[in-house]
Design brief:
The chain is rod-shaped, with a radius of gyration of 40 Å. Helix content is 48%, strand content 23%. It has 340 residues and is an alpha+beta fold. It contains ten helices and 13 strands. The chain folds into three domains: 33 residues, no CATH class; 145 residues, Trafficking protein particle complex subunit 3 (Muramoyl-pentapeptide Carboxypeptidase, domain 2, 2-Layer Sandwich), CATH 3.30.1380.20; 115 residues, Transcription Regulator spoIIAA. The strands form three sheets. It has a five-stranded mixed β-sheet with strand order 9-10-11-12-13. β1 and β2 form a beta hairpin. The longest helix has 38 residues. It comes from Fictibacillus solisalsi.
């Protein structure tokens, strides 16, 4: 292999090699690849964020950084290398590889804690091009992985200084922790699940509101059957809210029809009516009487009559008929008319 096909150099503590005949670039004897930060690699990260969203991309980069760092740390751990010696050696290697400058501010092997400071890291340079306002997660996640591998124990981090937020450098504090990248992935999944649940709940609430409005519109409508005679059919069960709505609707809309008679058709009511429903009857009758309208009730069942008999309300002023036809005939007769 001639010099045009193979080239090796040392830069700082890093070893680089090229095998152009094979199309290979080597870093520390292993296959590597180069990207332009300002264009290709930025586009790569932009695409991840575009597809997965900022929050998911942050967790993906943090997890990737941690797992890559763990490979580095476990390599030295398995070689039984001294963590203190390794951590002093790594700044030269990472700097030579274009990761930025790394300073070891504090390192305690016994406590398994460290404070690392990075300036002009590749992540900071990309974040600056992206106009980010918050620090990235790959670099601190990566060093947490490296230290986890070196110490043989899970290490996590907190950011104490951020270059992208205006400081002169990024500073990370590392310490033993129960926080793991897997836990963060699961937490992200839970948050996304809660977001989807909230969206679904919002849709259900909106649809329920729409259906409720529709029910209010069509429930117990005021139906003019003949001149000055209207019918209100009562259907199903009436709770406090539905009773209040019907009473308010009747009082406000009934005068529009100028009726002399209001026929309450209770044929569609449940057999087992409540005291609240009986109270609704009497409130409707009292309200319509104040408007000068006579009330007729039709469709009363034995169950209804028993409930109304045991109530404390007086019903002597109300006319009752078996069905709507008889009620209409009575109202017409009172007006001196009949159906031919």
């Amino acid at each position: 292999m001639n010099n045009l096909e193979s080239k090796q150099i040392n830069v700082g503590r890093a070893h680089f090699g090229w095998e152009t005949g094979k199309g290979s670039f080597l870093f520390e004897g292993e296959d590597a690849i180069l990207f332009w930060i300002n264009s290709a690699f930025k586009t790569f990260l932009d695409t991840i964020e575009e597809v997965s969203g900022d929050e998911s991309a942050s967790v993906v980069l943090e997890t990737t950084g941690f797992r890559m760092g763990l490979i580095v740390g476990e390599f030295f751990y398995n070689e039984e290398a001294s963590p203190g010696e390794v951590i002093q050696m790594l700044p030269g290697i990472y700097s030579s590889a274009g990761w930025g400058t790394l300073d070891v501010v504090r390192f305690c092997q016994n406590e398994k804690k460290a404070v690392l400071r990075m300036t002009n890291s590749w992540e900071y340079r990309i974040n600056k091009l992206q106009n980010k306002k918050e620090h990235g997660t790959f670099i601190p996640g990566h060093w947490a992985g490296v230290l986890s591998g070196l110490f043989g124990e899970n290490i996590w981090y907190r950011v104490t200084s951020s270059q992208v937020e205006g400081e002169g450098y990024c500073e990370f504090e590392f310490f033993p922790s129960s926080i793991t990248v897997n836990e963060n992935i699961h937490e992200l999944a839970r948050r996304k699940e809660q977001v989807e649940i909230h969206k679904l709940e919002t849709i259900v609430q909106e649809r329920t509101r729409e259906l409720s409005d529709l029910i209010k519109e069509i429930s117990s409508p005021i139906i003019p059957v003949l001149d000055h005679i209207v019918v209100i059919p009562l259907l199903g069960k009436y709770n406090e809210d539905r009773s209040k709505e019907l009473l308010e609707k009747t009082i406000h809309e009934l005068p529009k029809y100028d009726p002399d008679f209001l026929i309450l058709d209770v044929t569609g009511l449940d057999e087992d009516i409540s005291e609240l429903t009986v109270s609704l009857f009497h409130q409707l009758i009292a309200a319509t009487n104040l408007l000068g309208i006579k009330t007729i009730m039709v469709g009363i069942t034995p169950g209804h009559s028993m409930k109304m008999t045991h109530s404390n309300y007086q019903t002597a002023e109300i006319k009752y008929f078996a069905n709507l036809k008889h009620g209409i005939h009575y109202a017409l007769g009172e007006k001196g008319k009949r159906i031919i």
